[in-house]
Each structure stands twice: as C-alpha cells, then as structure tokens.
Specification:
The protein is an alpha/beta fold. About 30% of the residues lie in helices and about 25% in strands. The structure holds glycinamide ribonucleotide.
Length: about 220
C-alpha cells in the first residue's frame, strides 16, 4: 500500500475502447482518486483506449498476445512490463485475455477486474444476451478481486440495473456501462485509500468483512 507521501501507483490493462480506463483517468485528474496511473498496457494495437492514455499523457505499451508462442511467455512479458513500474494495484479494464494461475497469484490481493454481469451469474462472454435470454429482471456489473478462477474472485461492489421489456442486448450493455463508470472508480478509490483489502478470500472495507455479493449500488434508470 502507498506510504503517506507517495501516491498509489496503478497499472491498467485494456483490450479495446477503454471507457472504464477513461472514468479512472478522469477521477485521478480531478483528484477524487489519489493515485498515479503509471502505465496502460493493451494486448491489441490501435485501440481507442491507447489513444485515451496518450491523450492523458500516460505511458503506454503494446503486448500483443499474437506475438508470443504461449500464454506463459505472453504473461512473462506482461509481468516484466508491469513490475518495472512497481504498481500497488493492477486494474483490468476490459482486458479480454484469460490468465494462468501464476499470473493471478503474482498479483493476489492487488488486482481488480470489472465484469458486465451480476456475478456469480453469467461468467465469461455475451453476458447481456444471456441475461435477456434468461428472462432476468435485473442485470449489472461487478467489481471483484481477481483470482485463478475465471470471473470467480471475491466481490467488491455490484451495480444493479433494471432490464426493460423492450431492451436489446446493446441497450442493456449501454445501461450497464454507464454504471461501470460509477462503481469501478469507487472501488479503486477505496483501494487507493487503503480501505479495501483482501484477507484470504474475504473482502474487507474499513476492516469490516463485506457480504459475499459485495456492496450493492442500485441505479434507478
Ligand atoms: C466493459 O463492459 C467491461 O465490463 C467488459 O468489457 C467492457 C470494456 O469496455 N469486460 C469484460 O467483459 C471482462 N471479461 P471499455 O473498454 O469501454 O472499458
């Protein structure tokens, strides 16, 4: 964790548009989150998220998984680049690669992800389509600590949004994304303030254990 005179250092991993990255950039810039984004890494070239980082003056790196002959060698290069900045926190913001346990163990308790569903529902991809298909009345997004279990780490905060009868998957995705930009900065701010910790498999906020589903944030639109 950060000392009293040093900002929390964050490295962000992205694969695409980077709207969650932008939400964090904005809150660091306006002082809501007391941190420094040291590096943004993308596994895809030419994505909007890299432009967003450049625009904010944040160093970027491309670690293209297609150029590595195994997941291990890809992850070794990620770790090399990440650890050269000695971050306190690793933030996955739409990073669409699966990790080996060696990677997740290396960043245990200091790696957060946001997933577009109310975990443990709808791990993996196509979450909005699957929520509609299931006939659910509510959907959302979850911030969680990352463990070796895909989308299975302990939950920090969930944004809960209503599903409307007329919703298409893209309507729903857009409604959820707005709320992702609310809850991810909240969780990151807590972490940077030393308030959010992982003790074994238990998430604590201000040293109090959180319920399994984390904190609920209800969006009313
Ligand atoms: C977000 O909806 C995020 O929850 C999702 O990708 C999108 C990235 O958007 N992440 C995952 O599906 C991770 N499994 P962004 O690039 O605009 O932040």
């Amino acid at each position: 964790m950060q000392s009293s005179h040093e900002k929390t250092k964050i490295v962000v991993l992205i694969s695409g548009g980077g709207s969650n990255l932008q939400a964090v950039i904005d809150q660091v810039a306006n002082g809501t989150i007391d941190a420094e984004i040291s590096l943004v890494i993308s596994n895809n070239p030419d994505v909007k998220g890299l432009q967003r980082a450049n625009h904010a003056g944040i160093p970027t790196a491309l670690v293209n998984h297609r150029e590595y002959d195994s997941r291990d060698s890809f992850e070794r290069e990620l770790i090399r680049q990440i650890d050269s900045h000695q971050p306190d926190l690793l933030v996955l913001a739409g990073f669409m690669r699966i990790f080996n346990a060696g990677f997740t163990n290396h960043y245990a308790g200091r790696m957060l992800n946001i997933h577009p569903s109310l975990l443990p529902k709808f791990k993996g991809v196509h979450t909005h389509e699957r929520a509609l298909q299931a006939g659910d009345k509510e959907h959302g997004a979850t911030v969680h600590f990352v463990t070796s279990e895909l989308d299975g780490g302990p939950l920090v905060i969930q944004a809960i949004v209503p599903i409307k009868d007329t919703d298409t998957a893209s309507d729903l995705a857009a409604r959820v994304l707005v709320q992702e930009h609310v809850i991810y900065p909240i969780a990151i701010k807590w972490f940077c303030e030393g308030r959010l910790t992982l003790d074994g498999n238990q998430v604590c906020l201000d040293k109090q254990p959180l319920p399994k589903e984390g904190i609920a944030h209800h969006a009313n639109s």
